[in-house]
Amino acid sequence: MARNVIRFDPFAELGALQRQLFPEGMFSQSRRTAPITDIYTEGDDKLTVEAHLPGFGEGDIDVDVDQGALVIQAERHEKDEDKDKKKYVVRESSMSYYRRIELPEMADEESVSADFHNGVLKVTVPYKALPSPRKVSITTSGGAADQTATS
């Protein structure tokens, strides 16, 4: 005899209530998403890193090349003070961004360039030409010991 089995979920009604009260998710306005970072190659001659940093100014951003890695850091502190007849209100916010990207062996670390425009930091890492493999010729020696080992 087959019966339909229904699983009881004691939190199902609580989940439905949460979705009804917070349709975009709980505390969605207070959640921040991480800045978008795109890393891609353009042809075979350079690596490009684009960090979308809205809210940051050019002076808030540092780009360094450190031990074979590209390091992008951004930090902004904002503080507004309002003093009015024994009322003291402070609004303070802080944003930061950190990304360390290992560079490939052929990266030309001396020629890295960065441009910041409309909230997007674009770092270009050109590749240096690596020496092409060198063909090594194989010679044979005509000694008697070599001939007996091959026979």
What can you tell me about this protein's structure?
By secondary structure, the chain is mostly beta strands. The chain has a domain at 33-129: Immunoglobulin-like (Sandwich). Helices cover 11% and strands 42% of the residues. The longest helix has 10 residues, at 12-21.
CATH T-level fold name of the domain at 33-129: Immunoglobulin-like
For the record, what CATH class of the domain at 33-129 applies?
A: Mainly Beta
| Computed Rg | 30 Å
The shape, in one word, is flat
- CATH architecture field of the domain at 33-129: Sandwich
Strand order of the largest sheet: 1-2-7-6
Terminal residue distance: 81 Å
Low-confidence stretches: none
Spell out the key features of this protein:
mainly beta, four-stranded antiparallel β-sheet, Immunoglobulin-like, 11% helix, 151 residues, three-stranded antiparallel β-sheet
Q: TL;DR of this structure?
A:
By secondary structure, this protein is mainly beta.
Task: Please render the helix and strand layout as text.
Elements: H1 12-21, E1 37-42, E2 46-52, E3 61-66, E4 69-84, E5 87-102, E6 113-117, E7 120-126, H2 144-150
Antiparallel strand pairs: 1-2, 2-7, 3-4, 4-5, 6-7
Protein name: Hsp20/alpha crystallin family protein
Organism: Agromyces aurantiacus
InterPro entries: A-crystallin/Hsp20_dom, HSP20-like_chaperone, Small_HSP
